[in-house]
Write a structure and sequence with these properties.
This protein is mainly β. It is built from no helices and eleven strands. The protein is globular. The N and C termini lie far apart (39 Å).
């Protein structure tokens, strides 16, 4: 089955860390750029980070730059999002997506596949 599956979400205190994983099955992960998105209740979906096919190019939303790090291990079809210095405003459902490009804006044509999402909650 062709799918992306996220894991690693959970409850953390402000200032804590969490590492999310996005594992691809049924296709070659390195054919795609991989992006992380998040959506909080009542908020619009927000692009968080994106990595190129090889992993040699990355970008980040200003809100997470310096705190989050995206990486990929194509040998095991996995992309990671290391999240440090977490803040309550980071609370959201985080989803990964196989995309055709990494950019600051998105359209439906950019996406090949979405994962189901994993909940991240940052709370005292």
């Amino acid at each position: 089955q062709v799918q992306l599956v996220e894991s690693g979400g959970g409850l953390v205190h402000p200032g804590g860390s969490l590492r999310l994983s996005c594992v691809a099955s049924g296709f070659t992960l390195d054919y795609f750029h991989i992006a992380w998105f998040r959506q909080a209740p009542g908020k619009e979906r927000e692009g968080v980070s994106c990595t190129s096919r090889s992993g040699d190019s990355t970008n980040y939303a200003d809100s997470v730059k310096g705190r989050f790090t995206i990486s990929r291990d194509n040998a095991i079809n996995t992309v990671y999002l290391q999240m440090n210095s977490l803040k309550p405003e980071d609370t959201a459902i985080y989803s990964c997506a196989a995309v055709w490009r990494c950019g600051s804006t998105w359209s439906k044509l950019d996406f090949a596949l979405w994962g189901q999402g994993t909940q991240v909650t940052v709370s005292s």
